[in-house]
Amino acid sequence: MKIIYIHHSCFLVETDSCYYLFDYEKGRLPELDVTKPIIVLSSHGHHDHYNPEIFSMLTACGMKSIYAILADDIEVPKNVNVLQVSSGKEYALFPGKKLTTFESTDLGVAFLIEDNENVIYHAGDLNDWVWEGESDAYNEQMTLDYHKQIDLLADKLNCRKIDAAFVVLDPRQEQDYDRGLCYFLENISAEKVYPMHYWGKAEIIGKFLKEHPEYENCIQRTE
């Protein structure tokens, strides 16, 4: 499995049988094998997670088989083979491929893909969005909601390891920036974890590793 960071929360994952392109907003795509199917996934319709121009871009690249998996808050584009998904559901994809969705703590869904021997997780905007300016009641409920979804993910995995996980690490949360990622790492076994959604401030990954050196072996530096 090959993984390329594109921009913000967007990653391209290549397996033996297909590509997965998660939460494309903008950025240059690498050269693609046009004979391989590509599945475009968008966790929700926020502008930094979904750009409908990706479909014309892929067509212009010569991709022969383009599919889309879009959260149900996104308007379905014309002339695209789309599966619209909602949270808390399981979907059969191609043979040997299965998708499970989890409810975001912001908008839309998080994705868990089982692709034969590969297990891939993309959080979208599922995170422990605690903010200093919010009430204690809001922040406590946010943490409860986030923990519930990660616990559901752990139950679904049933001790299996995720091969590649894309998880929010947002510096705008200031002293609470690491809450979501820490809870994920404490409860989910993952071979490689790619922090995302850091708004161009890649140094936040180094800060996280300085404060949590025990995760040095799994956290990946994307820039």
How would you characterize the overall build of this protein?
- The protein is of the alpha/beta class and 223 residues long.
- 22% of the residues lie in helices and 30% in strands.
- The chain is built from 4 helices and 12 strands.
- The chain is globular, with a radius of gyration of 17 Å.
- The model has no long low-confidence stretch (mean pLDDT 97).
Cα end-to-end separation: 19 Å
Rg over alpha carbons? 17 Å
The helix fraction, in percent, is: 10-25%
Approximate strand percentage: 25-35%
Report the sheet with the most strands, covering strand number, pairing sense and barrel closure: 6 strands, mixed
Mean pLDDT, nearest integer?
Answer: 97
Q: Give me the number of helical elements.
A: 4
Q: Spans with pLDDT under 50 lasting ≥5 residues?
A: none
What's the order of the H and E elements?
Answer: EEEEHEEEEEEHEHEH
Q: What class do helices, strands and sheet pairing give?
A: alpha/beta
Q: How many runs of DSSP E, i.e. beta strands?
A: 12
Strand order of the largest sheet: 1-2-3-4-5-6
* Basic shape: globular
